Amino acid sequence: TSSLTTKTPIYATLVGLLNVKSFDFGAELVQQLHQRLQEALDTAEAGRVRLLVRFVGELVSVNVLSPASLV
């Protein structure tokens, strides 16, 4: 798990670069991310929720998501 937390910004940057080329890719990824986060919340998987929320924050940093879309 700790190796994933250090790689989160790298994965988010990669998604940001791919999103520039294909907006559909970013939209699909965000939809899948939402589903995975909801599943983790429903099953009370705290570690998984923490990783996914951290990834969401990184996606905001690379402009794949806007802060307003999280409200």
In a nutshell, what does this entry contain?
By secondary structure, this protein is mainly alpha-helical. The protein has helices at 2-21, 23-42, 46-61. The longest helix is centred in the N-terminal third of the chain and has 20 residues, at 2-21.
Largest sheet: none
Query: Helix count, per DSSP?
Result: 3
Q: What is the overall shape?
A: globular
Q: Kindly state the mean pLDDT as a whole number?
A: 90
Q: Uncertain spans, ≥5 residues at pLDDT below 50?
A: none
Distance from first to last alpha carbon? 27 Å
Helix content: over 70%
What is the strand tally? 0
- Strand proportion, as a percent range, falls in under 5%
Radius of gyration equals 12 Å
Structural class: mainly alpha
Helix and strand pattern: HHH
Strand-helix topology:
Elements: H1 2-21, H2 23-42, H3 46-61
Describe this structure in words.
- The chain is mainly alpha-helical and 71 residues long.
- It is 79% helix and 0% strand.
- It contains 3 helices and no strands.
- The protein is globular.
- The termini are far apart.
Q: Keyphrases for this structure?
A:
mainly alpha
